């Protein structure tokens, strides 16, 4: 009776060894992520307030729901 499963006696597939990412390669990406996060936090939390960088209400209206979701009062 033939087997339903294919059984092969070939060598198993081996993958390369994993190595840790050096800090000097990770640091620029971490700094970029932190700067981007702080910029987004500024636009959601403080823009169109006392420290507005952009005139008008476009930024406020764009981030309005996110502002309430994060607990920032705006009106």
Report the uncertain regions: none
Strand content: under 5%
Our Rg estimate from Cα atoms comes to 26 Å
Secondary structure: helix percent: 40-55%
Largest sheet properties: none
Distance between the termini: 77 Å
Order of helices and strands: HHH
The helix/strand class is mainly alpha
Question: If you average the pLDDT, what whole number results?
Answer: 77
What global shape is seen? Answer: elongated
Q: How many runs of DSSP E, i.e. beta strands?
A: 0
Number of helices: 3
What attributes characterize this protein structure?
single chain, 0% strand, elongated
How would you describe this structure to a colleague?
- The chain has 75 residues and is an all-alpha fold.
- It has a domain at 24-69.
- The chain has three helices and no strands.
- It has helices at residues 23-45, 58-62, 64-69.
- The longest helix has 23 residues, at 23-45.
- It is elongated.
- The chain starts with 22 loop residues before the first helix and ends in a 6-residue tail after the last helix.
- The mean pLDDT is 77.
Write the SSE topology.
Blueprint: H1 23-45, H2 58-62, H3 64-69
Short description:
The chain is built from three helices and no strands.
């Amino acid at each position: 009776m033939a087997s339903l499963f294919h059984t092969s006696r070939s060598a198993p597939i081996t993958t390369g060894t994993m190595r840790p990412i050096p800090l000097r390669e990770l640091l620029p990406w971490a700094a970029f992520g932190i700067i981007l996060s702080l910029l987004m936090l500024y636009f959601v939390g403080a823009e169109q307030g006392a420290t507005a960088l952009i005139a008008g209400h476009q930024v406020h209206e764009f981030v309005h729901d996110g502002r309430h979701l994060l607990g920032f009062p705006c009106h």
